[in-house]
Fold this protein.
Amino acid sequence: MNLRTTPRTTSRARAASVRRPALLPAAGLSVLSVLSLTACGVVGGTGDDASASPDRSYDITVGLLLPDKDTARFEKFDHPLIRDRVSSLTDKQGEVVYANAEGSKDRQSEQFRKMVADEVDVIVVNAVDAKAVAPDVERAKAAGIPVIAYDRLAEGPVDAYVSHDNELVGQVQGRALVNALGENAENSKVVMVNGAPADPNTALFRKGALGELDGKVDIAKSYDTEKWLPEVAAEHMREAVKEVGAENIAAVYSANDGMAGAVIEVLRDAGVTDLPPVTGQDADLAAVRRIVSGEQYMTVYKSFLLEAAGAADMAVAKVQERSIQFDGLARDVVDSPTRKDIPAMLVPVVALTRENIEATVVQDGVYTVEEICAGAYAADCAEIGLTS
């Protein structure tokens, strides 16, 4: 699919300028989160619309639909962050009704339909299957319930989209591999373990990565991984080891951390002791620990705080009809296969390596040093100066 990102206040020719903040130093994320939210008048309920609409309802219900539990961030971060943000924005009167599809598009459809039937005020959905969810988005629209696509761009008449510049995510991953391979990149065999074909982000991650890898490395094998399942990624990697040879695989592009863990396990089982660079995404705790120990080369850290807060702020503003805040949050636009010019918030991303763990996930309060450096990881943490 093609997804266009364009600033709402600039021309297409200047679209690339939107992506530059994603390359800011990781230490700037906490500051950026405060600045972006206060500038739009959503922290503390201030702003032009806040004073103009003193009687706006705080008693609202936000339906939250997340796709799976295999991706650790959804249960541990996204759900509680959105729940707490909605509560904060509504003086503890608003609530979040939550459902997880556990990887099933049919289950998500049932959950979606129930939320429509229960007449929630707004639905935030991270679709298992972007195309399959479109009829449910249509159903919500017919019932007068706005829908905000979260993390993955759902098809159908969604009202807004909160995610990251997903093509840039792939670029960051691909660039990291090229840098890791250095002078030997051109003759290096790289295996690509991409995400789920039903996830529209997969095509964007792959496009971004290929923009960095094509012509610079030898892509020996490339796989799409059904439902992002680590066990499927492991099957792909075993096939790659058999056909390419474990000793010939110079690097592995893994689209996320769950699959990266499976890839590394397969390489270990194949007798590889000096692991090649392996990428990831999501900054799962297990992945951060693997980075500390040197097993995984990098992951893409996408601020859960910024994305979740943005989704909650958009949802509440939409229900309360606060257009100034909503437009201030949705400063970009994207196209889906079924709708053009969808208002969007695109959150910065950072390449997380051994060098910047403290400046990213520790500084942002995602994990403590004690959590990362527990048990066998204490010595590795000491080696890179990560101490409490």
Summary: The two ends are 45 Å apart (CA to CA). The chain has 16 helices and 13 strands.
